Amino acid sequence: MFSNLVPKKVFFTKGVGTHKDKLTSFELALRDAGIAKFNLVTVSSILPPFCEIIGKSQGLPMLNDGEVVFVVLSRNESNEHNRLISASVGAAVPADRAQYGYLSEYHSFGETNEKAGDYAEDLAASMLASTLGIEFDLNQGWDEKETLFKMSGKIVRTSSVSQSVVVDKHGEWTSVLAAAVFILRENEVNGKANPGASAINISVSAIGWADLKSLFSCVFSLSKKFILKVSPAFALAGTESAAIAESAAIWLFGSFLISSFRSFLQEVKVSADAKVIAAQAITSAFSLASLMLFTYSAKI
């Protein structure tokens, strides 16, 4: 379905759930986070180059129920009465978006949202800083390192999402989670995932010029037969007039196809490569038809 598995977008979410069963409490936390309806696959902590960070409300409608979704996930659970538990995911984004960034998972006991979130940010930013060659003191506090990192001009943004909660007084299992949710596609229509657009990206790139030629030949042959049926004079006038009929059919069909395709591209977001390939294919066929039409017209 996808040409590669490099995520195009990412959003962050968090959740909490409580139940007498440990597994069910985690399921309820997933529901609270809005990601229970996906088949989640946990991955390690790289934010891909050019990966766009979007809001949860924008990201969730781009995923389909039952879809395999890659996440950087932090989770924690306990049934110990009055225990404070937390889970966090931190993010560090480089100034140069052609460079990859970092995501960090962190879970702890006895820490608030703010404290756990700061530590997760520190982890992500420190990993990115070491990759970018920024020198810093590991023993410095996060506030000092954050200032240093941003002053370097190489790290443009750090953030975190955290969920902490005190375990239910009745001693039921309580689960918390924080997650960075990746989206592989870059296409959407009215906020909904558009598998058709993704299929277009792949099929147009994959079928190649030979297949396109066969497709156009078939369609244009039918168009020519239609015109000959409608205008018998073409068939009676000889092969050159028949050729004009064929060219006219191609030209008319091409005009309609280009107009329709341009309108379609305005509604559906497809990759730049797919746009170029599809547009070149249609335009080339249209230009060829125009040339044939004028060439045969000049002979008569």
Question: In brief, what are we looking at here?
Answer:
The chain is built from eight helices and eleven strands. It has helices spanning 22-33, 56-59, 113-132, 142-151, 195-230, 232-236, 239-267, 272-299, and strands at 9-19, 39-42, 46-47, 52-53, 68-78, 84-94, 101-109, 155-166, 173-183, 188-189, 192-193. The strands form three sheets. A five-stranded mixed beta sheet has the order 2-5-9-1-4. It has a four-stranded antiparallel beta sheet with strand order 3-7-6-8, with helices on one face.
Describe this structure in words.
The strands form three sheets. A five-stranded mixed sheet has the order 2-5-9-1-4. Strands 3-7-6-8 form a four-stranded antiparallel sheet, covered by helices on one side. Strands 10-11 form a two-stranded antiparallel sheet. It has eight helices and eleven strands. Helix 3 (113-132) packs across helix 4, helix 5 (195-230) packs antiparallel against helix 7 and helix 5 runs parallel beside helix 8. The chain is α+β, with helices and mostly antiparallel strands and 300 residues long. Residues 195-213 and 267-271 have low confidence and may be disordered. The longest helix has 36 residues, at 195-230.
What are the SSEs and their pairings?
Elements: E1 9-19, H1 22-33, E2 39-42, E3 46-47, E4 52-53, H2 56-59, E5 68-78, E6 84-94, E7 101-109, H3 113-132, H4 142-151, E8 155-166, E9 173-183, E10 188-189, E11 192-193, H5 195-230, H6 232-236, H7 239-267, H8 272-299
Parallel strand pairs: 1-4, 2-5
Antiparallel strand pairs: 1-9, 3-7, 5-9, 6-7, 6-8, 10-11
**Proportion of residues in extended strands:** 25-35%
For the sheet with most strands, the description reads: 5 strands, mixed
* Whole-number tally of structural domains: 2
Total number of helical segments?
8
Task: Give the C-level CATH assignment of the largest domain.
Answer: Alpha Beta
Mean pLDDT: 76
The CATH topology of the largest domain turns out to be Pyruvoyl-Dependent Histidine Decarboxylase, Chain B
Which strand order does the major sheet show? 2-5-9-1-4
The SSE string, one letter per element, is: EHEEEHEEEHHEEEEHHHH
Stretches where pLDDT is under 50 for at least 5 consecutive residues are 195-213, 267-271
The end-to-end distance, rounded to whole angstroms, is 51 Å
